[in-house]
Amino acid sequence: MTGSGALGAAAIARRVRSGALRAEDVARAALKVIAEAEPRIEAFLCVLEERALEKARAVDASVAAGRDPGPLAGVPVALKDVLALEGVPTTCGSRMLEGYRPLFTATAVARLEGAGAVIVGKTNMDEFAMGSSTENSAFKKTRNPWDPTRVPGGSSGGSAAAVAAGVVPLALGTDTGGSIRQPAALCGVVGLKPTYGRVSRYGLVAFASSFDQIGPLARSVEDAALAATVMAGRDPLDSTSALEPVPDLAKALGGDVAGLRVGVPRAFLGTGVEAGALAAFEDALGTLAGLGVEIVDVSLPTLPHAIATYYLVATAEASSNLARFDGVRYGLRARGARDLASLYGDTRDLGFGPEVKRRILLGTFALSAGYYDAYYARAQRARALVRRDFARAFAACDAVATPTSPTPAFKLGEKADDPLQMYLADIFTVPANLAGLPGLSVPCGFSGGLPVGLQLVGRAFDEATLLRMGHAYEQATPHHEAWPPAAA
Amino acid sequence: MARVTPETVARVATLARLSLTEDERRLFTRQLDEVLAYAESLAALDAEAVEEAALPPAGESLREDEPRAGIEAERAIEAAPDAADGLFRVPRVLPG
To answer: What is the pLDDT of residue B71?
Structure first.
């Protein structure tokens, strides 16, 4: 392994802060490894060579001047291309925003840079974060480093593949229905979706505003905790960012997990989980039990309705959020429109890909007169029931465990023509978004040579317990030490 | 529950300001019908007794409304596909 991914974010930052390692050398190495790996993985939409070297030199200058550059000093980070970085192309994987350069930087990204992180590039994604395979990108198909004929998951597939291949130790994703956790699982890395409100959404191009959260993908729970701590906390620029105090999540690691209780919704695991993924999950429960974690049965009776609920409410929000892409203020404009109505219609037909159109239509339908009560309102009540299920479950346990995804990575093209099948693959991840709860995916083994993930969903604002449990599990297993064949 | 017809899709597309081709309309009619048929399962849920979910609670969210500088108009139109005299330019809205 030559990539900075092998060292990890925490170790890089420690060495850069102590002067043992120069941030510029780390950045140069990362840029070189990206260039080498990119033809195999195709994870990046743009690489920010000059900007990264400049930021890295600034970190080194801080160290030389005796100032502390911060807990992520010199750590190369890749950003999902849905996060705004001032002056840098931000496409959301869409023709609609090709060439668009935002005038501001996302708060989460600004906080990472403020802590010394070095942004090296922006990663591929499903268009506007809509998809579970990254195949909906208008620009390229990212490949799973474990098997280049398979998808990396999505929608944060570029970020997951980049971390899995070892080209960066840390990347940001966003998670509306599983878009951090599912690609993390399919690529064999750690992914954390924080509690709704934990991380500011300012500068995140909105998909579904009551679901979206920014979170880290990393090779270790410690690195994910480090990044989450830096990004979390109230931001006056996002009214939904929470006032809750933010503990040092990396410090929460290493404690005893004996006596913690993990709930398993057995009835929900009955069908549809691939045998190898289920076996790895059962093994993981055994490992947790061996650490003194008590495994209990919980009932989450509304979960069979989670997919239907999610795809009505999230698309309704998307249909509203994506109304802003009108060909007037920024982004693409269709040529030759006769009037304003056809300018809007033609621009949107030209700029959006099929999945985005499908979701805009579905959401508009669910909100439209005559259908609102039967679809949107009913789904919002189902969402309240999902929340109630979790609240009741947490009376009996500290986290709910399921496989992150019902299957390992599928083949490129396998589900591309069947939207409903693609949606059903999100069955284990959408409940946490419906309830606004934090979710963590950690590698828990392999099925047929492909990685699978263990998902832990916790109480609101209790990322600390999830990370502590995930870290204890990680340290007790060898899965996180495995490297894919396509690693840098 | 009414199933999705090409007319439904055309009406919804108009509401969503999406010009669709004939092929797209046909494809989306079938696919939306499949997804909505799947979503019919929600009708079986005993949910009448609960309130519709609102945004997950995120604490006190309001700040003082204090005037401050934002992005200048000149910069804000830099990214526009068509601008003139500091304004966004669009096709004629009124006849004449």
So the answer is: 86
